Amino acid sequence: MKIGYLTFGRDDFGYGMALCLSRLKEHEIYRVTPKTARYVDALLFSCFWWEHIYLLADFIRRSGLKKGDHPRIIVGGFNTFNPVPFFPYADAVVCGDGEEILQSVIAGESPGYTWNNVDPLMAFCHETNKIARIELARGCKYRCRFCAVAHLKPYRETPVDEIEQALKSTRLKRVSLFAPEPTMHSADKEITELCHRLGKVRVDSDVRLDRLSKRDDSVPRVGIEGLSERLRKSVNKPYSNGRIISAVKEAIAQGRKGLFMYMILDLPGEQDEDWQEFRELLSKIGKLSGCTGFLLKPSPSVFMPSPHTPMELDEIHWERDYGEKWKSFFGRGEDRKWEVMMAERSRVFSPAMRILSMLSTRAGEEFAEIETELTRSKIIGISGGRVKCNSLSGLLRILKRYGGVDKWTGRRDETSAPWKVVTFGNQGAPAGNSAAALGGGISKTSKSIVAGAKG
Length: 455
Known about the structure:
Layout: E1 2-7, H1 15-21, E2 28-31, E3 42-46, H2 52-63, E4 72-76, E5 92-95, H3 102-106, E6 113-114, E7 125-128, E8 131-135, E9 137-138, H4 148-152, E10 156-157, H5 160-168, E11 174-178, H6 188-197, E12 201-202, E13 221-225, H7 229-234, H8 241-253, E14 258-265, H9 272-285, E15 295-302, H10 322-330, E16 341-342, H11 351-362, H12 366-376, E17 380-383, E18 386-389, H13 392-400, H14 406-409, E19 449-452
Parallel strand pairs: 1-2, 1-3, 3-4, 4-5, 8-11, 11-12, 13-14, 14-15, 15-16
Antiparallel strand pairs: 5-19, 6-19, 7-8, 9-10, 17-18
Helix pairs in contact: 5-6
């Protein structure tokens, strides 16, 4: 059988697809374009990020393919935590661990909703950009309220002997041993020592603030999330301002060069007082001894309420231009008055992008009709592998005909959540949750989903 595949987005998004393809070695495998897609027997697409459903729709349109025809179209990836918007495009939407069920999905043997899991994990090495990527664990032991990983995937680890074989299989020196929290692996110290013995350098740098001592990265990446203590507590990331200041102080004393801080803007209940508290926090860091040689990198994203999490029904304030607010907060030129070296990143979604993101995340099968109308009217388009909006007013005008923008960005209730079509069994996974990634998943004791696209 001829299998075509395409992963949308960055190369490191392709790990799950590469893992799945490694189980299909008896087939002929090709990376496809819209012109070559029709010459295979099955098409596999990985949609990791919210934008990727727009790229998928564009690909299907340019290829001239249709669901139900040849080849069979199968979609997976983290963006499928709400599989319903994909139904008009695909014959099957793989949610959860995909590597062990993909054969049956390709053959059309997994209709309707079934649940699949992978436990124990088997190590797999995927080489991209001169880095060898190896998965340490799936799921997370922590319960951050905004994070789909914590609520979709019970924690499982890749055995150390499997990791050792994967490390020995690559000639690359730089390795990314990834997981939602790499240091949580029960053999983390042993794995790091193993890398040293094999001449490998770990380049994974994400770590929780309270586990910073377990990483020796020059500029570790830490999820701070909320601007204030109150907001951080609201998402179950209860780092006090004092704890953050102490962590920076310790990092300076250890000779680290800086700290990369992930922030989430527009968390529910955010007020001007939270921004002021964040300003005071940064000012206090700027008074620490040795801070003038320390680089702080606050990196913002905007809140996206993910399906199957405790925050799935919350609203967003799409009309707030956080890009401009973030730039104004840090200042430019003579307006900058920070004692600590600051390299703030300011890539946050515009109001139009936030609307498109929530349409992708929260829509039902109406997504395809809306996307087609937006594309035909040239209100949205694809440029450089990214979706773009050419007219916010045009976007609002068309969405008004489908119920108005608040239908997707406002407060939801259980009855208006299309993703509730996905349900778990009662063996080890929260009711109402679904898994959502080729190569990601749920524990062995629960069910995993192949959401068969309705025809």
